[in-house]
Specification:
Distance between the termini: 52 Å
CATH class of the largest domain: Mainly Beta
CATH superfamily of the largest domain: Jelly Rolls
Low-confidence stretches: none
Radius of gyration: 19 Å
Number of domains: 2
CATH topology of the largest domain: Jelly Rolls
Strand order of the largest sheet: 8-1-7-2-5-9
CATH architecture of the largest domain: Sandwich
Largest sheet: 6 strands, antiparallel
Shape: globular
Strand content: 25-35%
Helix content: 40-55%
Mean pLDDT: 86
């Protein structure tokens, strides 16, 4: 169990040092002796950090949580969009939970976010509220505490489990993310894992509350959004995301983000 992911149990949030949203290409800053927990949620792209000498990379729909006073070092240049929270709370390292305890916030060093509710959107809202002249510190602490509880319950319900076939949920997640720009078919899953698509889908939905098709669509659309932000044309974005039909890409993106890709790119480029 030497390589097991560390888990932490956190008490109530006593202070929020900062909240923020970034769309940027950079390296994680080097830090040592920072007295706050560091929570990072990634919406698109990749975020990499070396925490106490151990590299951690997370992608869309994932998070990492670094404890106070951990030594943080940059690993690589990342292009990503993410929300972060630096906060104070009493906490301690624990063994991975065996039973679900909704009364306590228990989180791993890194993990996946629930499909619903949209935790990234919730934290981004708090980031915006923090900049408002009407920002209320108690409201921010209460809502951030609620967000941690949501993620905690999800992580306690969905550790890296294997069913009787030996299929790991984390292996399945990585397969989908590694093929974000490929139009995956049911046959592709069956060939990769040697199991029926029905069985794979049941396992995934039981763990994450959505089908593999729904999750793949979400990851694909988040990648498309990142390409548009980086300046790719709509046609290039459609092609790089594996869409042969340009108009089908337009409709898919609009369905996922509630806004056309052209309008999305304009909004995020400041034009």
């Amino acid at each position: 169990m030497a390589n097991a992911t560390p888990w932490f149990e956190l008490g109530p949030i006593t202070d929020i040092e900062s909240l923020g949203y970034i769309e940027i290409t950079n390296r994680h800053p080097a830090r040592k002796g920072m007295p706050y927990w560091v929570l990072v949620l990634v919406n698109s792209g990749r975020r990499t950090v070396c925490a106490d000498g151990n590299p951690i990379q997370i992608g869309p729909g994932e998070f990492f949580l670094l404890p106070p006073n951990s030594e943080q070092a940059p690993c690589r240049l990342d292009e990503h969009s993410a929300c972060f929270a630096h906060f104070a709370a009493r906490g301690s390292r624990i063994d991975a939970p065996v039973h679900i305890d909704p009364a306590h916030v228990r989180l791993p060093l890194h993990g996946s976010l629930p499909y619903t509710p949209d935790c990234f959107a919730l934290l981004r809202y708090l980031c915006s509220h923090a900049l408002s002249p009407y920002a209320n510190e108690q409201f921010l602490k209460t809502q951030l505490q609620a967000l941690l509880s949501i993620i905690s319950l999800h992580c306690q319900k969905t550790p890296d489990r294997q069913d009787h076939s030996g299929l790991s949920t984390v292996t399945l997640l990585h397969y989908i993310k590694d093929h974000a720009c490929v139009p995956l078919r049911s046959q592709d899953y069956e060939k990769e894992f040697g199991l029926s698509y029905h069985h794979i889908n049941l396992l995934f939905k039981k763990q994450f509350g959505c089908t593999v098709k729904q999750y793949h669509f979400r990851i694909r659309m988040e990648h498309a959004a990142q390409l548009l932000i980086s300046g790719c044309t709509l046609q290039e974005t459609a092609e790089r995301c594996g869409f042969d039909d340009y108009f089908f890409f337009i409709n898919s993106f609009t369905k996922a983000h509630g806004i056309s890709p052209a309008a999305y790119q304009s909004r995020h480029s400041g034009t």
